[in-house]
Structures are given as structure tokens and as C-alpha cells.
Amino acid sequence: MRGLMNSVVIAVGAFGFGLAIGTGGAYGKLYGGPIVRDLLEVYTTIVRAVPELVLILLLYFAGTDLINRVLEALGYARIDVNGLVAGIWVLAFVQGAYSTEVIRGAILAIPQGQIEAARAYGMSPGLLMRRITVPAMLPFAIPGLANLWLIATKDTALLAIVGFSELTQETRTAAGQTKAYFTFFMAAGALYLLLTLFSNVIIAQVERWARRGMPRIAGGGQ
């Protein structure tokens, strides 16, 4: 249960920060200058092309070493990066690339007449985003973001490779000490399944709220 709580904390943090990165990345890709768009394209391409395990190892170890080298160059002492914080930001960096594409596609799915009408009324970019873009894109973005949340909950297991005490690492430790491998790994699988089922209930409620006033979709759980 301690490992499960750590996994949930990491998943929530990674998904939240990844969503923030993705929102900025989507707007940068759609409305940024050529350099910004090119840099974001490189970011999303590399992250989606390289296996997540390799990225985690690279960012977790090389990223920590880079931070300390920069601190030493500036005359500061080396620091020990908190494992929880490092885990969250590593997964957030990966989530951000996928969120960028999900949100960008959702924005492009909005009927452009709505955005043009808002601009014709003189709405500022911030007001346009709050009143038009975000509410209109949510029904298109939620399915993809829901998948990213479920991926985030499972990707926490990859942090076991760097020794962080999330659910998989705790399960492996307990199973190794008791030799009850079947019991502990079945329990871990059941906990992942329960987390997924609970998440699906919440996601269905959020999707129903986002699609209020829109036509019902057969088989969509509306």
C-alpha cells in the first residue's frame, strides 16, 4: 500500500506537470514562431521515438549529474535530488510530449468559426483561451488525456529500475523476502487494476461534464 501511494503521487504529479507542458507546447506549435515550432517538434519527436525506459535512465542519472555540474560551475555545492521529485519530473517530461500532440489535435478540431468570431469581438488571447478554446477542445482532448493518465500510472513501474520505492519495487522487495512471488505480484496486479477501474469512473464523469449539451455518442458511456 505504501508503494501504491507513492505510485499515485508520482502519477498525479507527472500527469499534472505533463499537462502544463503539453498545453504550452501545443500553443507553441500552433501559434509560436518558426524557432519555437522547430524546437517543440524536435522535443516531441525525440521523446516519442526513444523508449521510455531509456529516457528515464538518461534523465534520472544524466539529468541529476548535469544539475550538479552546473551548480559546481556556479560555485555551489552538489545536491542530492529527491527521488520523488526526480521521478515526477522525469515522467512529466515524457508525458509533456504526448500531451502536446493530444492538445494540439484537440485545438485543431475546434470549428475555426468560433475562434474567428471571438477574435472579431475583440477577445484577448487569455479570454479567448478561457472562454472558447479550452471549453471547446475538452471533449476532443479528454479521451487522449485519459489514456495518458492511465499510461502515467503504469509508467511509474519503470522507476523501479532506478530503485525508487513505488508499487512494483515494493512488491519485488516483499516477494524476494518472503518468496511468495505469486501472492505479492498478483496483489500488485489487482491494485493496478483497481486504480484503473476507479480512474475510468472519474474519467467518465469528467467526459460527461465536458460534453454537456452535445449530442450523445453511441457506446461512449454518455
Task: Describe what is shown at a glance.
With 222 residues, the protein is mainly α. Helix content is 79%, strand content 0%.
Please give a structural write-up:
The chain is mainly α. It has one domain: MetI-like (MetI-like fold), CATH 1.10.3720. Helix content is 79%, strand content 0%. It is built from eight helices and no strands. It is flat, with a radius of gyration of 20 Å. The relative contact order is 0.14.
Write the layout of secondary structure elements.
Elements: H1 2-31, H2 34-49, H3 52-73, H4 83-108, H5 112-120, H6 125-155, H7 167-178, H8 181-210
Helix pairs in contact: 1-2, 1-4, 1-6, 1-7, 2-4, 3-4, 4-6, 5-6, 6-8, 7-8
Pfam family, one: BPD_transp_1
Domain ABC transmembrane type-1: 4-203
Subcellular location: Cell inner membrane; Cell membrane
